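hey m, so remember when u said the tokens were messed up on ur end? i reran from scratch. heres the input so u can diff it against urs
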Amino acid sequence: MSLASTAPLKLSDDLRTPQELEERFVLAWGANGQRQCLTEGLVPNPKLVPFHRALRSLAAGWEGSLLIDSDGSLWGGGSNRGQCMSEELSDEHVPLSRLDIAELDGVPFEAVQMGRDHILGILEHGRAVISWGPSNEFGQIGHGLPYRSRVRPGVVHLGGVLVKQVACGEHHSLVLTAHGEVFSFGCNLHGALGSGRCSSQEQAERVVGNHLRSMPIRGIAAGAQSSMALSIGGHVFTWGSNGRGRLGLGPAYDQEPTVLAPVAVPNLPGVARAVAAGGQHSAVILRRGRLFLAGDNRSGQLGQSRKDVDWTSTFFELPFQDYMLRVRTVALGKKHTLILSYDGQLYGCGCNGDSQLGSLASEPVDVPLKLKLDTAKESMVVGLSSCHDHSVAMVVSSTEAIEAPKPTRPQTSATANRPDRAAMFKTINTMNTIHEDLPSATEEQPEGLRPSTGTGSRANLSCCLSRVSRSPRVTQPRKHDEGNLAEVVLLQPVVQPGVAASVGFASLSVAKLTLLIQAATSPAALEDLKSSLATAFAAPSLLNASFCFPGLYKPRLDAGGLLTAFKALIQNPELFEKVEMHVVNAAFEGLSVWANDHDEAASLVHRDQLRGLSALLLSPVLAEPEKPQPYEVMSRIMRLVAWMPAEGRRELQEVLVEDCSEEEVLRSLVSRVRTHCDETVKRAHQMQRLSPEIWEGLMLLQLLWGANELIAQRLASSLRTSELDLGQSLSTLKGGAATLRRFTLAPLVRAPVEAFDFHLQSLAEEKVPPELEFRLFVENACAGPITPAEVLELPLYAARTDYGFEYVLPSKMRSFMANRNLVPVSYTRKVLQVENHHAQVYLQHQVARRVAADLEVLPGHEIHIDPALLFFILKVHRDRILEDTTAALQKATPEDLRRQLKVVFEGEQGVDEGGLAREFFRLLSAKVFTTECGLFDPVVAQNARVLWFNSSSARESTDFWLAGVILGLVVYNNMPGLDVRFPPVVFKKVKNEALVLEDLRHVHPDTYLSLRSLLSWEPEEDLKESELNALFENTFCLDFVITYELNGKTETRELCEGGKDRMVSYKNREEFVRLYCEWLLTESVERQFEPFRKGVRRVCDSPLFNALHSAELELIVCGEQDLDFAQLRKNAHYDGFQEDSGYIKSFWDLLLKFDLGQKKRFLSFVTGSDLAPVGGLQELQLVIQRNGDEPTERLPTAHTCFNLLLLPEYANSSKLERLITTAMHNAEGFGLE
């Protein structure tokens, strides 16, 4: 094959008719020492080759050329060394004739390529690759052991996969299959095989090194000692010899003479749609026909001045004076470049010593010059191949056209728009028109993967024909997006050497999958469905290209359509059962190809390598993780994600954000992964051992969390009408108060998946004991919780585990509490209780050690310690609870406050095992957290129904500090919560979290609405800035002064220096809103809030508390507001009663019909608190114990410390209701039994 191999942009069927093929003929020019130009004598200009058969394809080689006619017969001329073209003629050279080799007789070919000593041909419809040649010294023929003598035609073994393209270097070969996989064989001295080593390969092996692992490839190119590949996403990969920068990998590789594995070309300014490789230079064509070249320029083959550029390792755009050529296709020789432009002109630059550029001049050309074609008729180029020092081109004649003007310079982006262009042509027949800037809404996309280079679905390099002068097929003029003038572009399919045009990419589309599912009623159709799914899931490169939207130049997964198709499969259980194991086994095989270990996964850094993971996660075969096979498949996926480098995880998250943003899709993914994580935790609970799979699963769940948040952020950004980026607008205040960083006018956008859908239910069920998790947190994550963004960057390290030597996640990941956003709040509270209990026990041990040291007690002897030293004993009178508490807390030291609280009600006999403390906080909160106490603003309480600090309060700072200490004691002593209504902004300020404009809505709703109206105001018509500001000032009449009431007096305050003389205008309104919000939420209540915050932190200051989010702290402090007694019944236990007895049913029927007030009274009667704990009433274990039967008038009684209800068995439900209601309404005070 020639050194140049241009990758097809779209792998579609060959739609050409025999009539179209018959119009074609061949031109050749350049070196002709071996008659490789298919004619005799010198060929300084493109010369017509006498070939009177319908032509299908062509290829130029080192010392010969090959043609394929419409019947698939192979013709050639040039060197016959090793009798590679004819067994009857001599070894010197042969004229153009049908190849006379016995094995090729009657064998139809579709594409062919030539190297120095070998030929590769693709059979019709891509059924196989046939190779032969004069020598197999380096294994370039792929038939096994290398030897220098002639090798007869034989099949290259590729596993029975259809072949799309072949490419030949000097002594190496590349094959591209319909699965998007690249195989290589031959000489590897310069690393051209991409295997990661320098040893040659005698048989075809898959190129999986570095970035080509699992990468769906749509085009390949082979240079003399280098190789290139083009992915479906438009990424270019190069490897092999890097002499004189020919690989285009940039300065980082300038000192690397060889690159043994594929590396992505950096910094290309767009999406690539074709690649080509030459002797010592390479080319990439981007969308809109932009040509970039890299490598040697000593002969001017890069189209740049030889004086200015000797060689370059960075791809630079081909210049032409002040313009850029718009390129349709390119072919590279040893030292020259041929270019086919958008307007159908053929140009060349580089070495011309053997007339490679189609002229007699021997001097190198470093500015592209137009080639003059030797044709008697007007014609169009439809194929171009160049190798070493000669070229061949396929052209087609046009029979009906008027003469077009001859351009004086190459067609460029700047000159593409011409006002009279439409008048230059007559409409003869309908043809395919390429214009990459406009969509093609009428064309149907062929099955499988068919990316296009633009929004037009026919914009592809393998299906284009460029006009040399005029065309037999014309389209209507279209508007160019870069100008205002009309442009007509006339195109037909261009024949790509080495490409089997009839072979499409074998990817499975959503539409085809849907049809297969619907048609799977017969055994044959069922086998087709099994085979299609198994093929897709077994080959990662194929799966990464499957189920994508058709017609996009960048592939995107049709996740919604795929989910719908999978649902249709599940709705037919019988069909799904027959297909399930085939898909599971294929998924196992595919994951093994993706990566078998950490080192292999290190190359997964492109989204084109990872897109199929989303499709795999949506597969219904993974819906039941309790089954062994689906569980193992999901575990392998999670391990693969953990093995990936940070760049790969980021790319996978981008796939989720861009392709899986639909709510139903993302919810399905989250549910699938979370369910598997729960199953992993349950298995660990059964085995009594935590496995690495748990943390790998959490990593994938965190990645989904991050994607969920990114979707919401980007949607909010797209909806935003105006944004005030205030940066550090409330710059850090005294005591580290929260800062107000951003106000946004866009509506709050809800993430597709709610936060609680990420919570592990296995933790709510305490499959991991809170004591164990607290130990994990202390050992691994005391530095604080890990963020979803950090998860993407976590490296793995090698360690010896219970499962052997393997790569594991860092220790900071190995704690559930480190992954705070995935843990239910109910479980967080239990772990916090464990932490608080450990702190209390530690203090008690410290006291005991000090007492023992003071008394000089010998080890083993008993000592008696005053309980006041071990506990914080709070003695209060019910009628003076606030005064007694205030006095006790003011005397207490910080160490006292951190001891376990024991409450004693003076004059009562109760012993505090938790119930008295709950009663204490219930009574105290009714005194403190109310507007009557003077701490909180009654106006805000009335308007917003929340407690907010009274800026005009006359109470001392110690009173606010006391309120904070009480709140801290509730959290520290593991109480169920306080019956208070603080707005979320209070907890955000306690946790030093950033505030947003929405926080104002919970405190001052009227002011919030006014400020939003101020920010969202827009004039009805366009005005100058001065007029706009004047209109705004006259409309609102505001200055930078606010008015408020303080102690019954009206006060004013300037929001900035000189505020009374500064009007609020359209331009500075954001500053006014910022300063106003800063005053309302921070400055106006700073004297009241700072003592409150310090009081909370006086008691609560631990690593786990610091890791809490403000929303979690709010739930822990305020408890659950909903009282669902059905949850309480579900978790109840019975002693002396049967759960299904009629009496117990009557009891629950009575409770379920209570109103909210009655439910609160009953809950307070039984537990000592009228609030549900965090997580709801299901977290309570109510014990109902039988306490006698009739005859009796005994009231029900309760042990609140143990949530125990002593219930007599009454004769009927009416008596039960009467006595239990009586007990509830008269339950105050504690006694001992």
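this time it looks ok to me. Confidence is low (pLDDT under 50) at residues 1-15, 400-490, 721-747, 1229-1233. if urs says something different then somethings off w ur setup not the seq
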